[in-house]
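Colleagues,

For the teaching module next term, I've prepared a clean inverse folding example: a structure given as tokens, and then the sequence designed for it. I'd like students to try predicting residues themselves before seeing the answer, so please don't circulate the second half yet.
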């Protein structure tokens, strides 16, 4: 009997078709799913390698225990990536009718015409709309989906993406995000540019039993000023879904960035987010967030203050409404680089030395008056 030439047998794809002919990744997370996803997206080798490294960290990291109970969450039950079913468009007239209707019902195209400088729309992890008004494009502002940014501005993305701000090793969910992220928005504001209208991104979770992992990367260069708004919603189903986003904001010297998010989730969603800013001297970051609905809410915003006069203001509210009554949790931290003894006091209301020597952080659960604040030195 002749030996089989195994080199001619194709390896089974980690992406398969469902009954409706839609491409889906297999449930759970594996190296095969991550590699196939990166291949479908046509990503550069450095991003593929970063995904694989993140996966390895995820497999080693324990599930966090400082917040709410996450034991019912089973990654093997979730589809963590669904390949795109539509293209990317810069006109609402070209967006598929069912998607456009949802955006119309939310008033986003009208808001873009009247009140916004630009909009990025993401549907089930994949960008479907990217718009930036011409007068802002002429100022050198870059605003698009993360998928587009990797193709068009790879060096800029590689410099900032999940390196010092939110590295994969930060926690188990940041590592999972680094491995399987898809969609999200990218914003760069050049030196000295003041953006007089907000920019908005809208993320829609449409399927059931799936995960969404959009990544937001904002860079406010020296002396710039920008207001970014993010909205998220999901369909309601009877099975668990998961939203695990990462937001990275870089505020250069003398710049100001406001990040505002409003999230309205269905009661089957585990909403787990890590959001971080790096703020240089005389820079300001403002966090304003509201997360409603969801089975579980865990918010983890933080800021690194790296120079004199750097400031971070945090205001976040989370309210879970899952049938199990699980408690939403918030945790925010600010780290300040150690200053010489002769330095003037910081304007930041949350003060601490650098993360290398001291820190100040706290977490609170909202349904019970349980609060904890910790100060650590070392």
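(Answer key — instructors only)
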């Amino acid at each position: 009997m002749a030996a089989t030439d195994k080199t001619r047998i194709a390896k089974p794809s980690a992406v398969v078709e469902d009954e409706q002919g839609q491409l889906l990744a297999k449930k759970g997370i594996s190296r095969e799913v991550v590699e196939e996803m990166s291949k479908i997206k046509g990503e550069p080798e450095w991003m593929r390698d970063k995904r694989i490294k993140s996966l390895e960290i995820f497999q080693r990291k324990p599930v966090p225990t400082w917040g709410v109970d996450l034991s019912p969450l089973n990654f093997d039950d979730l589809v963590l990536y669904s390949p795109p079913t539509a293209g990317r468009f810069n006109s609402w007239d070209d967006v598929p009718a069912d998607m456009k209707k949802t955006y119309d019902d939310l008033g986003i195209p009208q808001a873009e015409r009247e009140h916004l400088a630009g909009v990025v729309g993401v549907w089930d992890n994949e960008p479907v709309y990217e718009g930036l008004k011409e007068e802002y494009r002429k100022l050198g502002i870059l605003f698009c989906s993360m998928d587009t940014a990797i193709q068009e501005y790879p060096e800029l993305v590689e410099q900032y993406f999940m390196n010092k701000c939110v590295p994969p090793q930060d926690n188990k969910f940041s590592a999972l995000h680094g491995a399987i992220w898809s969609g999200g928005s990218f914003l760069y504001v050049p030196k000295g540019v003041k953006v007089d209208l907000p920019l908005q991104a809208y993320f829609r979770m449409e399927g059931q039993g799936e995960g969404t992992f959009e990544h937001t990367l904002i860079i406010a260069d020296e002396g710039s000023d920008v207001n970014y708004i993010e909205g998220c919603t999901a369909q309601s189903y009877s099975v668990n879904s998961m939203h695990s986003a990462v937001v990275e904001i870089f505020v250069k010297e003398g710049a100001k960035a406001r990040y505002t998010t409003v999230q309205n989730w269905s009661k089957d969603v585990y909403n787990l987010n890590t959001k971080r800013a790096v703020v240089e001297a005389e820079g300001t970051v403002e966090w304003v967030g509201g997360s409603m609905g969801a089975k579980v809410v865990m918010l983890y915003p933080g800021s690194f203050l790296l120079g004199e006069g750097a400031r971070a203001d945090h205001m976040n509210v989370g309210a879970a409404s899952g049938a199990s009554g699980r408690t939403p949790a918030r945790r925010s931290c600010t780290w300040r680089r150690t200053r010489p003894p002769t330095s003037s006091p910081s304007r930041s209301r949350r003060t601490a030395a650098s993360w290398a020597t001291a820190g100040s952080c706290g977490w609170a659960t909202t349904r019970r008056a349980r609060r904890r604040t910790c100060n650590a030195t070392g």
